[in-house]
Automatic annotation (TrEMBL):
This is Putative esterase. Gene3D superfamilies: alpha/beta hydrolase. SUPFAM superfamilies: alpha/beta-Hydrolases. It holds the Pfam family Esterase. The keyword Transcription does not apply. PANTHER family: DIACYLGLYCEROL ACYLTRANSFERASE_MYCOLYLTRANSFERASE AG85A, ENTEROCHELIN ESTERASE-RELATED. GO terms for molecular function: acyltransferase activity, transferring groups other than amino-acyl groups. Residues 1-39 form the signal peptide.
Length: 350
């Protein structure tokens, strides 16, 4: 009040200031002159390089991981009008090796002429595209980064607004992933049930907390010299159960989904001359033996998930169990083609 301000002024003339005489004024002044915390840096595009054809290579700064994440973007057929977005996740290599969607499949040609933006993160190896409980020194050394893995935060919170603004999208999203990411996309859909209108999972293992699932996850993370305990805590603990889509199948969003796997037996892409094999007998042997074993395990997980979701009365999930097929790109390309009409309808691709 005016009288209190006058009292403060009078005391100041006498060489003292009785702040407590005007507690409200004192509080307001304290707030006004208190130092303000620096605003946290926002997710943003920091690099942009045109690639071949319709490919745009961008780098997006992730505040949660404090580094720039590279991505490849296939622009929609007509960039003058808004288009929906398909987020396409690579497998265990995360796009940091040659095993990527744009190098191993016909994705670039397949999406030519389609009115959809396809966004492919080119990092995230051995991470399960999840938020880790703590940084991992092994992955940091292996992948030459800071060891911070906050992929769920990046993919569901930081990246979509950046992509929507930069590409002028419709805001409609679909999500698909293979192998390691075939597990991740289901977990991400549970985490962000309103972000995606359709999800496709190829050759993933939805069971992460039972002994088979734990072995599967530990093997993948170990390939990157990572410690899975840094990811979800003690093996078999609550963190592992929290990220188990099988256990939380009742939380899968009510959206069209496509989930596939092969039996592990050799199929039509397991032959010399196939684009993924070439004429290399060693590649073929590895694909049949190792790829067959991995796919057989993924098939078991997928069958269990199918049983669980049918018990829950889900009729909007399409399961495709291939009678033959290994853990390899030829089958994932086939599944992308087969699942695309479902995803395109869900995100309203014109």
């Amino acid at each position: 009040m005016v009288c209190e301000a006058m009292a403060v002024f009078a005391d100041k003339v006498r060489g003292t200031v009785r702040w407590m005489a005007c507690p409200v004024v004192a509080a307001l002044i304290a707030i006004a002159f208190a130092p303000t915390a620096a605003a946290a840096p926002a997710a943003r595009i920091v690099t942009e390089t045109p690639g071949p054809g319709r490919i745009l290579e961008i780098g997006v700064y992730s505040p949660s991981m404090d580094r720039v994440i590279p991505l490849q973007v296939l622009r929609a057929a007509d960039t003058s009008t808004p288009a929906p977005t398909l987020y396409l996740l690579n497998g265990a290599g995360g796009g940091e090796d040659a095993a990527t969607w744009l190098k191993q499949t016909d994705a670039s040609d397949f999406f030519t002429g389609k009115h959809v933006n396809v966004v492919v993160p080119m990092e995230g190896a051995f991470s399960y595209y999840t938020d880790w409980e703590r940084p991992d020194e092994g992955l940091a050394k292996k992948l030459n980064n800071n060891g911070r893995n906050m992929w769920a935060t990046f993919l569901t919170e930081e990246l979509p607004p950046v992509i929507d603004a930069a590409l002028h999208t419709t805001g409609a999203n679909a999500l698909a992933g293979i192998s390691m990411a075939g597990t991740s996309v289901l977990d991400l859909a549970i985490r962000a049930p309103r972000l995606y209108r359709s999800v496709a999972a190829y050759s993933g293992c939805a069971m992460t907390s039972d002994p088979l699932g734990q072995s599967f996850v530990s093997l993948v993370v170990g390939l990157g010299k990572g410690d899975p305990r840094n990811m979800w805590g003690p093996t078999g603990g609550p963190g592992w159960r929290e990220h188990d889509p099988y256990l939380h199948a009742d939380r899968l969003p009510d959206i069209p989904m496509y989930i596939s796997s092969g039996s592990g037996l050799p199929g039509r892409h397991d032959t010399l001359g196939d684009p993924g094999v070439g004429d290399d007998g060693r590649v073929l042997a590895n694909q049949v033996v190792l790829g067959g074993g991995i796919e057989s395990a993924a098939n078991y997980c997928t069958a269990r998930l199918a049983e669980r979701t049918r018990q829950l009365g889900r009729t909007d999930i399409t399961y495709n169990f291939h009678p033959a097929g290994t853990h390899s790109w030829g089958y994932w390309q086939d599944d992308l083609h087969k699942s695309w009409p479902m995803m395109a309808a869900a995100i309203a691709v014109g």
